[in-house]
Design brief:
Helix content is 5%, strand content 45%. The chain contains three helices and 34 strands. The protein has helices at 15-25, 28-31, 160-166, and strands at residues 44-50, 55-63, 67-70, 77-78, 82-87, 103-106, 111-112, 115-121, 126-131, 139-142, 146-150, 173-178, 182-192, 196-201, 204-209, 213-217, 232-236, 240-250, 257-261, 271-274, 280-282, 288-290, 298-301, 312-313, 322-324, 327-329, 332-336, 339-344, 351-358, 367-374, 377-385, 391-396, 402-409, 419-428. The longest helix is centred in the first third of the chain and has 11 residues, at 15-25. It is globular and about 75 Å long.
């Protein structure tokens, strides 16, 4: 999105349509940055899953942008330690189908089923008002944080909108118009109301009826806000995952409200959503990197009889979920003896940690040796069979450039049933 030469980018008339929403969402009482935490709701039943796979249930007492507290636990828990926070007995449910219906796609990669209802003038940047359904409050966020929106259902067999969305951001806004198929036109998007889109194509301003527009993919626009941290995601059943920066909890008559800021919105623009509408809170963290999200720089796989089994990410080497002593793990590396994986480490990593063991898919067989090395220096050598209890490990890796994970043949020098797991293998900054 670019400002047309010699003209004002966002017409003042559109702001009036969302003025009441703006005043409601950004009232002084809710906008103050120090408001969260002053009035906390009574305990809320939650289930926490930590980065190492550990699960904890408890009553949520406090929540802020940095961490949370459970009833009876004096020690606060940092958000970056948490993989997910499940609210009450809610379950994620079915995956949201984004192929049909109105859609809003964010710059950070998340999508929600929602409608852009209006565009208004914000602080140095335009903002969009988004409806997530009749039962949820309207939310408003800087248009700089939105990558695209769809107004109508997807045309069967015509994926051009989705393909364009998944590609590199366009240099100009792209409008997809309903004709015999979808017609794409490049230009400048100026605004939207309940009836029309305001656009500029080839230097000419015009209005296009809303019902003729399938969707719009927006070119990146400048913003006074710079986001350096990844957002937390609120998983809302039937809607999708909303990217936010948490601010806290607030007591309300009908139940606690979660306070948050949308990406690229000013720090004081705190908004609210009922905590009861959320199934999961998925904190983002740039402090933990799982090896299953990285590509090794060196892979060596061999076998006694010449048939090597390729390693797997977030699965056992058999292709089944990672399981150890009857417990399932979502993250880790499943390998077979003999497998060597080497990773190039960037500066800033402080520790490497994992849980070692023989996967349940070995069915009581298996004998391996786990070997961990840093820049060629051996840090760990442990012999394992299926009867040994899982072993948690943690080693400092500050300054290490090469981290090598090796699962070798065990004491029997065979590879029968050698289904070894590096569970929750992770680097911490």
């Amino acid at each position: 999105m670019t400002l047309p030469a010699g003209g004002k980018r966002w017409p003042p008339r559109s702001c009036g349509l969302v003025l009441s929403t703006c005043l409601l969402a950004f009232s002084p009482a809710s906008a103050a940055e120090d408001t969260p935490g002053k009035t906390e709701p009574p305990g809320i039943a939650v289930q926490l899953t930590f980065a190492d796979g550990k699960n904890v249930e408890g009553m949520l007492e406090k929540l802020s942008e940095s961490g949370l507290s459970l009833r009876g636990n004096a020690q606060p828990i940092a958000l970056w330690e948490i993989h997910e926070l499940r609210i009450g007995s809610k379950t994620p449910g079915k995956a949201v189908n984004f192929s049909t219906g109105p859609l809003v796609a964010f710059r950070s990669g998340e999508k929600v089923l929602g409608r852009i209802t209006d565009i208004g003038n914000g602080d140095n940047s335009p903002f969009a008002t988004i409806s997530l359904g009749a039962k949820l409050p309207l939310i408003s966020g800087q248009l700089a944080g939105i990558a695209a929106f769809r107004l109508r259902e997807k045309y069967a067999g015509d994926p051009v909108f989705e393909e364009t969305l998944e590609g590199a951001p366009p240099e100009q806004d792209v409008f997809f118009l309903r004709r015999s198929g979808l017609l794409s036109v490049a230009g400048v998007f100026h605004g939207i109301d309940k009836d029309y889109l305001q656009v500029e194509v080839a230097g000419k301003r015009s209005r296009v009826r809303r019902q003729l527009v399938h969707g719009v993919i927006l070119a990146p626009i400048a913003s006074s806000m710079k986001e350096t941290d990844p957002p937390t995601r609120l998983e809302i059943p039937g809607v999708g995952q909303l990217p936010v920066y948490l601010r806290g909890l607030e007591r309300a008559k009908d139940g606690p409200l979660l306070l948050f800021r949308l990406p690229y919105s000013q720090p004081g623009r705190v908004q609210k959503i009922p905590l009861s509408a959320i199934a999961r809170i998925l904190p983002a963290s740039d402090k933990i990197v799982f090896l299953s999200s990285l590509e090794p720089t060196r892979v060596e796989e061999a076998a006694v009889l010449g048939r090597a089994f390729p390693y797997r990410k977030n699965l056992s080497v058999s292709g089944a979920p990672l399981r150890l002593n009857g417990r399932t793990y979502r993250r880790g590396l499943g390998v077979h003896s003999r497998t060597l994986l080497e990773y190039a480490l960037n500066a800033g990593y402080k520790t490497f940690a994992a849980l070692l063991g023989i996967d349940d898919s070995s069915r009581g067989k298996g004998s391996v040796t786990f070997i961990l090395s840093a820049d060629g220096k051996e840090l760990l050598r442990e012999n394992f069979d299926s009867k040994r209890e899982p072993l948690p490990i943690s080693f400092p890796v500050s300054g290490v450039k090469r981290l090598t994970l090796l699962v070798d043949y065990g004491n029997d020098q065979l590879d029968r049933g050698d289904h070894a797991d590096w569970l929750n293998a992770r680097l911490t900054r």
